[in-house]
Design brief:
Blueprint (H helix, E strand, L loop, with lengths): L1 E5 L4 H17 L2 E8 L3 E4 L2 E5 L6 H16 L7 E7 L2 H8 L5 E3 L6 H8 L2 H6 L1
Parallel strand pairs: 1-2, 1-6, 2-5
Antiparallel strand pairs: 3-4
Helix pairs in contact: 1-2
């Protein structure tokens, strides 16, 4: 059995991670904490948008804050957490990561219907 939990550094994702830790402890499931780096898009004259990336490997740059997020909620006796960082659109990466998983756990920021309608929601996109 395996559980994938999306981690983005927010309080909601920390709560999701804590929930996933408790579930993994209760069921003996493997737990994978997944951070996703989505290349930002910037407008360019004569083009709609272009993706750009900072120098170096952004997934390596994310590893320390992933470890910090896990350390913030992990307690003695909790199951081990496998930490992964992937690149791409968050909803697509989460769906791909859970292809062979039994459960996916995501937090919600509670933006409400109005803000979510304009800003979108990764959890809403995954559910659809």
């Amino acid at each position: 059995m395996s559980i994938v939990v999306g981690v983005d550094g927010s309080e909601a994702s920390r709560a999701a991670l804590r929930f996933a830790l408790d579930e993994a402890a209760a069921t003996g499931a493997e737990l994978v904490a997944l951070g996703i780096w989505e290349p930002p898009v910037a407008p360019v004259a004569g083009a709609l948008a272009v993706a750009y990336a900072p120098p170096g490997d952004p997934t390596e740059a994310m590893s320390p804050w992933m470890a910090e997020a896990i350390d913030a909620v992990w307690c003695e006796g909790d199951p081990q957490v496998v930490s992964e960082v992937r690149t791409g659109p968050p909803s697509g990466v989460l769906l791909e990561a859970t292809r062979d998983a039994d459960h996916l756990v995501l937090g919600t920021r509670g933006q409400g219907r109005f803000a979510s309608a304009f800003l979108g929601s990764v959890s809403h996109q995954v559910a659809n």
